[in-house]
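Researcher: Sequence recovery benchmark, item below. Answer with residues only.
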């Protein structure tokens, strides 16, 4: 089955065809590094990590270029640096490291390139100067603004990504219109920095010929970085639903205006947006205060459990973050690791390709829940084969389970280590002895003794899982 992706711009699932036959380029908007990321921020990182892995399987691995930027110029960064009395670099380094650590724990591969805004000032300035020269940007009170109405010129292309007309967008935004704007929808490309804030030389004012010191707007950062590291047009542009307007809408407008590109797809060819992670049906966000930080969740759960939970719904829909979701994710992984553990103990796990059905599910606009169902089918096949004493079949099915898991960034830990959760040898021996005693008690139908031992295991924070081919355990 060919890869199909839902494209926000054309509002349909489209067969994916990269601009160049053997090279795939993808840009995903990354974090603004001024605080800890919450688990909602991890959703795009995990979703596009699965797409990255899938693309690496479908195309020559080294020809898949995945760029995810670091936004290291922003008002919130300046504010945090001022609060702590340090340079912005101290803040951005600290939170970039934390972000990397969080995503490593969630099993995300590092992107191929990770451009930083501060390293792309020259590219931003060049784009802005091209727009000033062309007349789609203008200078007002030291700011450079984008002339939305002049650019759109009644074509409707400005609102195409969010599927709205310019007048609807202005009415919907209800922002206070700054005095210096020609039109309510005009947005900032460059603005003066406040005293003591970092500033760069800036684009030249075409009237005075002088540079305009200051700093870039957020949208121009991504226009400049994506073009620099991937070239235009690139294939896939991704991010969360909240970025469609204004961020991505403005990226398209700026890049097309600066280069005189005729159609929106001359910038990026496919637009993908993940749905929101919610809590009690509200978007998880810092401003609402309903956030669970990745770092905090990792203190209580392996990253893989969080990853499973994030992938358990289709990426385009909403997903409600609850304790039950996380508990269920853990149980599901226990089940699959249990099958791998038993297959390995019985006769090993074969080298294998991922099941075709799993590839088909992911190729159908990243249908991760359907792909997970294929993993369960494989685990069921492992258990049945083991029950029937067919060790070779079990090894083959387990190999498919492992390879399918790899494609989703799951199931790559040693199964024993998964269950033992870092337990030392003495502890393991103690648990194994109790499990044997419990099995003996059950064989003798001494249910009282079996229950007593189960209680003893529970006191050690060990959860016993009785499966069709015997009991396994894990730390609770
Ligand atoms: P931000 O740091 O707010 O710009 O967000 C970084 C990325 O996370 C962007 O792609 C956002 O669209 C995405 N994002 C933020 N909040 C959520 C959420 N609650 N659910 C899903 N994605 C989100
Ligand atoms: Zn961006």
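Model:
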């Amino acid at each position: 089955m060919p890869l199909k992706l839902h494209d926000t711009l054309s509002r349909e699932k489209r067969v994916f065809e990269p601009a160049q036959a053997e090279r795939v380029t993808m840009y995903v908007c990354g974090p603004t590094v001024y605080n800890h990321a919450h688990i909602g921020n991890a959703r795009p990182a995990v979703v596009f990590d699965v797409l990255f892995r899938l693309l690496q399987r479908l195309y020559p691995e080294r020809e898949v270029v995945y760029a995810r930027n670091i936004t290291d110029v922003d008002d919130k960064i300046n504010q945090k640096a001022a609060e702590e009395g340090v340079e912005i670099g101290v803040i951005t380094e600290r939170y970039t490291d934390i972000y990397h650590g969080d995503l490593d724990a969630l099993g995300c591969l590092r992107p191929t390139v990770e451009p930083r805004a501060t390293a792309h000032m020259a590219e931003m300035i060049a784009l802005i100067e091209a727009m000033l020269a062309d007349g789609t940007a203008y200078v007002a009170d030291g700011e450079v603004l984008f002339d939305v109405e002049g650019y759109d010129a009644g074509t409707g292309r400005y609102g195409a990504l969010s599927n709205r007309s310019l007048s609807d967008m202005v009415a919907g935004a209800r922002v206070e219109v700054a005095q210096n704007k020609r039109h309510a929808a005009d947005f900032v490309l460059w603005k003066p920095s406040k005293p003591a804030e970092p500033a760069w030389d800036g684009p030249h004012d075409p009237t005075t010929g002088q540079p305009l010191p200051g700093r870039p707007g957020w949208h121009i950062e991504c226009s400049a970085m994506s073009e620099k590291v991937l070239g235009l047009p690139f294939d896939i542009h991704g991010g969360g639903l909240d970025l469609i307007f204004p961020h991505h809408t403005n990226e398209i407008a700026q890049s097309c205006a600066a280069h005189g590109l005729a159609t929106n797809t001359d910038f990026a060819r496919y637009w993908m947006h993940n749905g929101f992670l919610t809590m009690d049906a509200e978007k998880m966000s810092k401003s609402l205060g309903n956030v669970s930080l990745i770092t905090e969740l990792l203190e209580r759960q392996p990253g893989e459990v969080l990853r499973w939970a994030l992938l358990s719904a289709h990426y385009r829909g909403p997903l409600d973050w609850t304790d039950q979701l996380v508990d269920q994710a853990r149980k599901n992984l226990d089940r699959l690791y249990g099958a791998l553990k038993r297959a390995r103990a019985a006769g090993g796990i074969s080298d294998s390709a991922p099941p075709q059905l799993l590839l088909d599910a992911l190729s159908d606009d990243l249908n991760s829940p359907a792909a997970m169902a294929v993993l369960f089918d494989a685990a069921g096949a492992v258990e049945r084969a083991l029950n029937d004493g067919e060790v070779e079949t079990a090894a083959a099915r387990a190999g498919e389970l492992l390879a399918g898991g790899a494609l989703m960034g799951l199931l790559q830990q040693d199964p024993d280590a998964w269950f033992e959760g870092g337990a030392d040898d003495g502890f393991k021996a103690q648990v194994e002895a109790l499990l044997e005693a419990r099995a003996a008690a059950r064989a003798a139908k001494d249910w009282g003794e079996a229950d007593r031992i189960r209680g003893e295991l529970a006191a050690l924070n060990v959860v016993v899982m009785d499966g069709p081919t015997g009991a396994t355990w894990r730390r609770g």
